[in-house]
């Protein structure tokens, strides 16, 4: 049985890597932070809304959501940033990431189940498991559906 799937890989924090299954990604875009409209009274990781294909797309700082320092803190003023648009049943959510690295075939049978001490607690609801690459580095496999369906968004998306 074919167990290889295509994943989009990207950086998390200064040295971690993560992947999301391509089947839940509808688009990847490079956006300017000035185009995001800030919305008050949202969780810190929600940067605001972005006009995308005539729809309002919520933009989330994936790093902050998963327990890393916010992407936009301090001198790290990125003017352009990559957004991964997730889709499930007509619901969309934009995840802001530092940089995309590749599209990779990963064998889902090689995925390991994480033990909690390996990652930030904030990550656990969104983590399906992890892969290791040739240099034994962990690559976190994030669960796109858990992210879209997170109770954190309430009725906002």
Q: How would you sum up this structure, described in words?
A:
It is a single chain. The protein contains 2 helices and 10 strands; from the N terminus they run E-E-E-E-E-H-E-E-E-E-E-H. It has 157 residues and is mainly beta. A 5-stranded mixed sheet has the order 8-1-2-10-9. The longest helix is centred in the last third of the chain and has 5 residues. It is globular and about 45 Å long. The chain starts with a strand and ends in a 9-residue tail after the last helix. The mean pLDDT is 89.
DSSP summary, beta strand count: 10
Order of helices and strands: EEEEEHEEEEEH
Stretches where pLDDT is under 50 for at least 5 consecutive residues are: none
| Number of helices in the DSSP assignment | 2
Kindly state the mean pLDDT as a whole number?
89
Q: Which percent range fits the helix content?
A: under 10%
Instruction: Give the overall shape, derived from the CA principal axes.
Output: globular
């Amino acid at each position: 049985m074919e167990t290889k799937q295509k994943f989009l890989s990207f950086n998390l924090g200064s040295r971690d890597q993560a992947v999301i299954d391509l089947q839940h990604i509808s688009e990847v875009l490079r956006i300017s932070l000035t185009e995001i409209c800030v919305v008050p009274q949202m969780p810190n990781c929600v940067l605001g809304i972005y006009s995308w294909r005539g729809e309002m797309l919520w933009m989330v700082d994936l790093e902050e959501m998963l327990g890393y320092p916010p992407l936009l803190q301090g001198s790290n003023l990125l003017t352009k940033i990559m957004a991964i648009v997730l889709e499930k049943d007509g619901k969309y959510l934009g995840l802001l990431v530092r940089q995309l690295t590749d599209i990779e075939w990963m064998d889902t049978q090689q995925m390991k189940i994480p033990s909690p001490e390996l990652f930030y607690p904030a990550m656990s609801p969104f983590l399906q498991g992890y892969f290791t690459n040739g240099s034994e580095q962990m690559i976190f496999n994030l669960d796109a559906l858990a992210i879209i369906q997170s109770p954190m968004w309430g009725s906002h998306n």
